[in-house]
Amino acid sequence: MSSFLKYISGIYTALKSLLIGLTVTWKELWTKKVTMQYPENRETLVISDRWRAELIMPHDDNNEHACTACGICMMNCPNGTINVISKMVETEEGKQKKALDKHIWDYGMCTYCNLCVITCPSDAIIFSNDFEGAVYNREKLVHQLNKEGSKLREKKKEPVAATPKPQPTAPKEPVTQKDEAPKASNDATDKAENKTDL
Amino acid sequence: MLLTYSQPLELTNVSKALDTFLKTYMADFWAYLIEFVIVGVAIIATYAIIALALIYIERKITAFFQARLGPNRLGKYGWIQSLADMVKILIKEIIHINNVDKFLFYTAPFFVIVASFLAFGAIPFGQGLQAVDFNIGVFYVTAVSSLGIIGILLAGWSSNNKYSMIGAMRSGAQFVSYELSGAFALMTIVVMSGTMQFSEMVEGQRYVWNIFNGHISSIIAFVIYMICGHAETNRGPFDLPEAESELTAGYHTEYSGLQFGFFYLAEYLNMFIIAAIATTVFLGGWMPVQIKGLDGFNQIMWYIPSWAWFVGKTGVLIFMSLWVRWSFPRLRIDHLLNLEWKYLLPINLVNILVMVIIVLAGLSLSDLFPKLFGI
Amino acid sequence: MAEQIIFYILAIVIVVFSILAVSSKLVIRSATYLLFVLIATAGLYLLLNFHYLFAVQIAVYAGGIMVLFIMAIFLTHKPGATMNQRMSWKVKSSAALAVSGLLISGYIIIKNVVKVAGYLKGDELSMQDLGHSMMGTQKYQYLLPFEVISVLLLACIVGAILIARKETGNDPKENVKDK
User: Fold this and answer.
1) Which of A14, B300, B331, C141 pairs as cysteine with C136 (C-beta 3.0–4.6 A)?
2) Is the pTM for the entire model greater than 0.90?
3) How far apart are alpha carbons B331 and B337 in whole angstroms?
4) Min Cα–Cα distance to chain C from B224, Å
């Protein structure tokens, strides 16, 4: 007898849960549709800030950028999308200094992994969300990120910025960074030597 | 003539005018021959048009359930989309596969589509709008629609593909089991209405639909019939013969082009046939809503043509089928068979007994309130 | 005229596919040919206006038994393998049996065709009459055979359940474990 009652109550609970499921989908039927009708809604289209579409190098009003031509982005790029071409310029004090000549990024090879942006010590490059990058010609996919005649924004001199392990807190405390950075590079070389020993 | 004025939009007017026109100009034999051809062409055309419309409606409603918009590029609201798909499927290459049983492989799609054609022909679309009105209408439809499963089994076997074979076996087990409950559910209503003929059944539901007439028993039968209809057409939560994540496409994996189109068409039309039979048997078919005593109201209802009533009621049932389809997850095969053999079938048997008692004891609504619902 | 043409088409279909059904080397194809024979027979019933018989033929034979046949063939070992057909004494004797059966039943049909023809010309039986004759106890009503057949079917179902049932506590695997 108890098994029979179980059978009946099973049917009851099953029907109840099915009805609950149906009400859920019924409500879903009348919700606002999320489809974006792209070419038509171009004016009102909102793209998420996190969307990585095109690598750009922000320039300020004086046509100055923050890239020191350290080449970290080029080294970190997993498939060689970035090519940083540097040149030597002479400063006012007469010193020779490395500066950016061309920062070249190949749209067609980029996987949008964001490693270059994360590792850039001076936050010189970011991903914009301007996604309409289609062109008719493969050559047009190769972008030069720095504008013509642009130069490095004068801030503070960081000759050691080109170390393989930049510290995220570096800009705040330049003194400690100066001390630590060579140490870090030493550690790295030590490790490498150990490895070769083993 | 009276029909022309009181029901101006009825398609029967057209068919009667055609009949008299043909008979005045030629011998009866030739007139009948031409009429047969016209009826055949009309049925095939309706079949194709309904399939196209269903594919469009299904895609739209599915999209709405998933908070999408669905096809919207081709024409206003994308209504040309399924037409374009049809053209695509017609001009697609039929790929000839090695190592299949050629005879069975090419015959199988025809079984599926012919079975659905045969059932389609017996559906009453409107007043007098029925190709064949058998004495045994309900039985005929259940019988011929059972032929389709043979096509599915043969397709699965002859494809020489394990996925197809498993899909076909699942489909076979599922169809054979659920056909039983579906037929029993219809039988419950046959007990009440006392006829198997579709036209008489519709006439009998003039003032009260069968689903209300037998109250408890009818509603249970209706629910069971809809569940079984879903299972028979391999749709909704019962689509495990073509569970794409495990069996690619089930029994029609190896088919391409128009042969696949046959399976596709038959699947959609079977959905329509199930809804149409449920409409006719449970929801009063093409009969407009009538209230005994209110002649003026009844006359206004008759101005809406009977085929429109039929399409409307069927449409509601098709919407329900889609609603169920997008609400519930797919069943596992043992759960599926449990549902049939341990729940639906015993409930059905008890239900028939209850219905017999209701009919014999005069407990149906038309017996209890003859002034309101009796014919 | 039209009826005769349809009859001859159906008759040819029945004869051709019957021969193909017994001569085909693939089991599954034999089953399909048999299915065509059954459907064509149903067509004959339809031609005679026996709608009920037509639906029974389709539902029970074509839709029910053939599906079971095909499923059973699926479950056999290598269902597509060809049979080796040798003219052994088995084949010969079964052919002789079939021919003698054909002769006997053909003789009976030809002898009695006049008596049966009377029924054929009648109008279509109504479902009510059919139901009453199946469930009635008067003359020409067949409640007893109907019930006896249903008892037979019930016995078959019970037997099938008994075979398919899992024996609890008597599992051969457990016995192996004990040893």
Assistant:
1) C141
2) no
3) 10
4) 20
